[in-house]
Automatic annotation (TrEMBL):
InterPro entries: DUF7344 (IPR055768), WH-like_DNA-bd_sf (IPR036388), WH_DNA-bd_sf (IPR036390). Residues 18-86 form the DUF7344 domain. It comes from Halorussus limi. The lineage of its organism: Archaea, Methanobacteriati, Methanobacteriota, Stenosarchaea group, Halobacteria. This is DUF7344 domain-containing protein. Gene3D superfamilies: Winged helix-like DNA-binding domain superfamily/Winged helix DNA-binding domain.
Length: 130
């Protein structure tokens, strides 16, 4: 029985790390936590402004074909197609401990500094311990 519990915990950690290894996906989650539901275009603006994509079109393509489907499949975001508004889903709560650490570390860099709909310091503050 203990072995099964350890496997389950280990699998959850692996899944969380896989989801959060992409700066695109972390940026999407930060933006949705900070500003609430957003269109794919708004999220593309966020990742482009953060320097994660060369241009908006590439950001939209990457979000639509890779990152949003992966987050949706894991129940982190609610999203079905490029015309739909993206919002956080219940599964994001499983990522909270990892997001707190990632946001804290990324706050120490210029990575979260950008001019866009979400303010970096507020996005990090949502994950910082009191």
């Amino acid at each position: 029985m203990v072995r099964q519990d350890r496997t389950t915990v280990s699998e959850r950690i692996d899944r969380s790390c896989d989801l959060l290894r992409s700066a695109y996906r972390r940026r999407v989650i930060y933006a949705l936590r900070r500003s609430g539901p957003a269109s794919v275009g708004e999220l593309a603006d966020v990742v482009t402004a953060a320097g994660l994509a060369d241009d908006r079109q590439r950001a939209v393509a990457s979000l639509v074909h890779t990152h949003l489907p992966k987050l949706s499949e894991a129940d982190i975001v609610d999203y079905e197609d490029a015309d739909e508004v993206v919002s956080l889903a219940g599964g994001v709560e499983d990522l909270e401990p990892f997001l707190a650490v990632a946001a804290e570390r990324e706050a120490d860099t210029d990575y979260l500094t950008f001019t866009g709909p979400a303010v970096a310091s507020d996005a990090v503050a949502r994950y910082m311990p009191d």
